[in-house]
Amino acid sequence: RIVNNESSEIIRIFNSAFQSHAEHPQVDLYPEHLRERIDELNDWIYPDINNGVYRCGFARSQRAYSAAFDSLFSALDRAEEILGRHRFLTGDTLTEADVRLFTTLFRFDPVYLTHFKTNKHRLIEYPNLWGYVRDVYQMPGIAETVNMEHIKRHYFESHRQINPFGIVPDGPALNLAAPHDRASLLASV
Length: 189
Known about the structure:
Layout: H1 7-16, H2 35-50, H3 52-57, H4 62-85, H5 96-115, H6 127-137, H7 148-158
């Protein structure tokens, strides 16, 4: 039995402690030679992007919302710039930092944009971030792990203080199967 609800710890536990049960034990999302870089990325991705959307959505003042909003979009701009040069955050290797970023970006336009008022730009307006989401989504085994209908229902129906009637939007229509051409990016960091 696993007793933990901290995503940063769970991803590390699954990456190392369950290799004997893994279907693909060769996959290492936290390789030794990239750990310092992964930790540096996580140091701003978590507070400014992963938690940043929540800081916007659950802000109790305009000042708190605006500060979170500015931090979120500065971090998205930073990720856009990195992903303009590299296929993944550390170069050519999918890592824990990519998994963490993907989960928030995947939900951005369908949920956070409206529900949490993160509406400066839609994710699809960031060519590198949007291509990156499609790239990761199209990797074998990834699409089966996400269910947009479930994600939207959870957010829009459970946060009644934000959405009192629990109305779940029908859109947006996103083409996650569209070509992304991310594999052509240089791998050098």
